[in-house]
Write a structure and sequence with these properties.
The chain is built from seven helices and nine strands, in the order ααβαβαβαβαβββαββ. It is α/β, with parallel strands linked by helices and about 260 residues long. The protein has one domain: 3-Layer(aba) Sandwich (Rossmann fold). The strands form two sheets. Strands 3-2-1-4-5-9-8 form a seven-stranded mixed sheet, with helices on both faces. A two-stranded antiparallel ribbon has the order 6-7. The two termini are about 30 Å apart.
Length: about 260
Amino acid sequence: MLWMIPLALKHRREMAARRAASPVFAPIGDRKPPDRWFHSIDLGGIVTPGVKHHFLLRGMADIAFRHGVAGKSVLDIGAWDGFYSFEAERRGAARVLSTDHFCWSGPGWGSKAGFDYAHASLLSRVESLDIDLPDLHPARIGKFDVVLFLGVLYHLPDPYAGLETAAALTDDLLVVETVTAANFVPAPVTRFYPGGLDGDYTNFWAPNARCLKDMLRDLGFRQVDIVHNPHRHPLRARHFAFASKHGTPLRPKIWP
């Protein structure tokens, strides 16, 4: 693993250089840009700074939206600055609802200022709702053709319950992106990180790809495809899961 350390150091240097080159943004009406951004968002020729760079996010979006969202309703759970919400709108989604609480008004270091600033800059029609994940119910917000659950799972003390909530809101396709671990293990397992992964106390679990797939099958999705995320931290495996409630029925699980 020592050979991977230079890659991690290079990654950190590149991110620091991008933040140092951040442009200065003027207020838009009563919307002021935040001091810190998580998502780097193209506002029409001017790109916001962010921990997640715009080119990386565009590459991830090409994977996340590989099945298309044109004419569909989209729910973005854990939207933060809203890159994926605005990208879904840009790609033709009929309706987009962004939800967050931890990063908008909860204990996270972020705020809703980035989302609101980008929303005003883009003249967006994306809807937003400050609501925590356990409070999301179909009776309150309805169901959506596509539900985005990107970079959320490993932050949950109970990841299965989080997937169960997302599944209940999904009318067709649930898209999950998460850190994974122990992918060399053929059985479904998940790894717990005491004190938090990478020193972040909000990081609890990392399932392996088999576990991620089996949890989604257990929640009633008929077709689950796991796709490796190449746009990742050099020391962390990440995967996308595309779980559809339609398609070819899956065979019953046969454990080895």
